[in-house]
Amino acid sequence: MLAPGVCMSITEARYINDGKGTLVNPEKFNKQDYQQLKQDFFKHRYRYIDDTFPPDNTSIGKVIDGVVWKRPRELVKNPNFIVSDISRFDFGQGNVGNCWFLASIGALTYQKDILNQVIDSEQNFEYGYCGIFHFRFWRFGKWVDVVIDDKLPTLQGKLIFVQSRTSNEFWPALLEKAYAKVCGSYADMDAGTLSEAMMDFTGGIHITYSLEKAPPNIWHVLLRAAKSQSMIGCTTPHGEIPGENKVAPNGLVCGHAYTVTGVTQVMSRDMPVNLVRVFNPWGFGEWEGDWSDRSSLWETVYPEERQKYLSVAIDGEFWMTVEDFCKNFNEVTICCLNLNFLDENITSVWTASFHNGRWLADITAGGHETFEKTFWMNPQYRVKIDELENDCSEYNILVSLMQKSKSGRRRFEKNLFIGFSVYEVSALLWKRGKFPASFFNTSRLVKKTTFHVDSREVMEKFRLKPGEYLIVPSTAEPKQSRSFILSILTKAKINFEEVDAEQLQRILNENLLKVTGKLNSAEFKHLWDKVTMYRDIFFHADVDHSGNLSLSELRNAMIASGLRMGDDMLCLMALRYGGSSGNISVESFISLVLRMNTMARKNFLSNTLQMLPLSFQWMQISMYT
User: Fold this and answer.
1) 519 and 553 in a common domain
2) Where is the active site (predicted)?
């Protein structure tokens, strides 16, 4: 486990020094600096054109004849970024199947704090204007700042994609363009899931409920979620022809994504009725059943309630009972920053642990549990639950596994089938290090994902009693390489660590401390000077600001530290000190170089590290003794 002090200070320094994807200091997507670009183009009175997402068919993703890319000032006389305020009624869907994205925007407009994280509302077409805009998205564990120009694709003078209800308001079209850039093109936004866009807006955790098997308290869950900082969306099942948005007789669109915008209870003939309000991102097309805009049932409620909740307008928004909601929609997705809505006690606190890992073919990619000979090779995470909260009820832990994108083209990205298993670790088992194949033959499987699925993320929520557990994320087949993020949210107090993770604390204890186990002030200063020096070398070598060293970056860092090695040696070094992540973290790099120093002092090496060549014999001694 990471302990307070040296290791935590280094981790904090990594975030401070390289601005690793925080909201305060997001990563620059494609290494484009919004402030610097805006300053340069405004100074020289040029209009910005983004050469990484050019105004041509490559950015659309397919050939469309007659497309003309125009800036808002070429479309209307007085363009505005935002007119009055941002609302779910500001836009309608264009000629791309991204209702999942637009439904998520509809949910986003309800959460102003989150909205302000994504959209810089100070942007405009007047002061300092030079045709450049930016937006922020959460992508695979990091916040990124995405820069775009304001040239938009048009046909016959009209926008092709998202349409603004107010002709001179352009935040929807520009936000859509920024997200299209992240996905690879506009066409890459075709077909997706609500959870994908909602997570990219929040960095939160999502929970999806199948409404065919909805829990009895689903309305109360939605009510609590609506009262907390959550985004809620829902989808209708596909029709006879998948992908065809056919309008059913009840007014709902088949295979379509909607936003849940309200949850309430009204009194009808002195009987409570639980209602859900739903919004169609098309901006039209509404439910025509009970409690719809023109339903006579509204005459059975008190005039005050009717006036408060009913709005008869062609705006795509409507009410329906929770029973009709569960009958006509197949899934509802809740994306949140806190899981407190799961409990009756909305003040309950959940804590989160996150870890970046990787499956590497032939090294840490063993396939699912039926591959008995290789399953143990997968990354392993040991969790110890010390105690349970008094108010723990049905769930006290949620595990999420998200696979990271390998390329910049969303529609060409083929997700692997992923899942995870949870095993109980006997209290008598004090083993340190990776658990062998024999452990999985004799240990109790507590929980696993129902299936390995080809989704960006899989998630399960369940209840664990106090004790130790081993979480093993896996791909369906062995020898499949992919990076992932493992998230664990719990109401119980836990200790969490990757099995065999290289920790600086362990290196210090085993190799650098004297027999007394203590460092005097001079020794500590000497050690700390080395730690900070190697930390600085790491950040200088990490040229892509990923927070990890690739093999080429590791080579440069080793040279800067006074060491040279061949390709085979470098790969072995990455395997030994990179753990399951494949790449070298700042903690692992410092651990590696400090161990070299230790070996040098023990005369396994020469007394200086000046451009020291490393051999396989040295590798065996320094890495495995």
Assistant:
1) yes
2) 99, 256, 280
